[in-house]
Amino acid sequence: MKHSSLVDLVTRGAQIAPAKTAVWSADARMTYADLLDGARRMGTFLVDAGVQPGDRVAVWMDKTPACVQTILGVMCAGAAYVPLDPRAPWRRCRAILDDCGVAALAVDGPRLPFMTELLSGLGLPLLLVDSAGTHEPAGATRMATRAEALETAPRKLPLPRSEDLAYILYTSGSTGVPKGVVHTHRSGVAFTEWVIDTYDVQPDDVFSSHAPFHFDLSILDLYASLGTGANVRLISSVEAMLPPHLVRGVAEWGITIWYSVPSILTAMLEVGELEKRGFGDVRALLFAGEVFPTPQLRRLRAALPGVRLSNLFGPTETNVCTYYDVPREIPEGRTIPIGRACEHLETFVLDAGGNEVGVGAEGTLWVKGGNLMSGYWSRSGMHGLVVDPRGRDGMVYCTGDQVRLQPDGNYDFLGRRDHMIKVRGFRVETGEIEAVLATHPAVVEAVVVPI
After folding, report:
1. pTM (2 decimals)?
2. Residue 110 has pLDDT above 70, yes or no
3. Are the C-beta atoms of residues 249 and 24 closer than 8 Å to each other?
4. Using one digit for the tens of pLDDT, what is the confidence trace for 391-404?
5. In sequence order, what are the residues at sequence separation of 6 or more whose Cβ sits closer than 8 angstroms to the Cβ of residue 57?
6. For residues 79 and 55, is the Cβ–Cβ distance under 8 A?
């Protein structure tokens, strides 16, 4: 790896042009110099407040440059950030806080009214808020404002090591409890550097950031841009649901690299007039998270003949493990492949008996290499990384995806071997919904079926 940590990666990116805009949204923007200065001040404040290397700091904020600065500040302190869905019910957020034992929680104004209930009995050491207001929540040992943190004189803090925790992303869990996927700086950097090399990211690139920060697509948006001196345009949760606005915005914002789930691209085709308006200066269009219906993909390919279209595939546990560049002509009567392994990873397929299979045979996809998570938070008994079943050195991950290797080296995706489904790119275990429904006293038994 070229960089020891995500903080190191962003710092190197900022050296290209400190005064350049790093991250921006509809109503705010932040230069690299301001982003890093504030992150270092916040990191120093967190350390002085008792946050230690390896601690978890939850971030429950809207998608803004201030949120990005907070995330970087957490990592500057040597801690791992845990992004919470800003639109999620507070009870789900509380389940996550209980699971990972946070040392601090950063929130913004819209979430303050929920703090007293959220923090009741939690024993939270530090609550960091945008500003003190009419809602003074109980339940935190100390409450401070972002302004207070940003007034802290920054000290030179040690960079996180590659093996240190960087972030925990919570996904749906079949037991009814959210499941925390733990990534280190090593896995975050390994994936980001692959993106930078594969898509030849340059300082003049402009990334879209369509995915929320608790979704694994955001890792590509943030760090491939900030790690190269490029910049990233944050798309709010409201903007993200307005296809015509997005199609117009791509040109207005100067986006050159777009990344989202296929369903939003389909909506941009159907109601956003993408075919009529074009896609601005986009040179690489990446999609992941769900199957792209072939008819709509064929329309997109025809509308953007000169754009590189890539299908990125992989669970949160690996971020991306395979990819496929969509050709100019898409074959009739079949979905596109999920591609072949990213160059720095190894993939293989095992059948139900644990035997490695070759071309044409169906089996389960396994992954080995630098992108892999370090495990599930506090889930030592849950299936995670295992010793390579082929008898080779190293740990591997079973994705649970059923695939078939084609003669050209690409994998076809055949489905799942469990009850996990994808909804707008988000992983949902039907068992989690069933478990929650079953807690209601009027429900004897619950079964969830996708339609």
Report:
1. 0.90
2. yes
3. no
4. 999 999 999 999 99
5. 46, 51, 74, 77, 79, 80, 81, 82, 102, 103, 104, 105, 106
6. yes
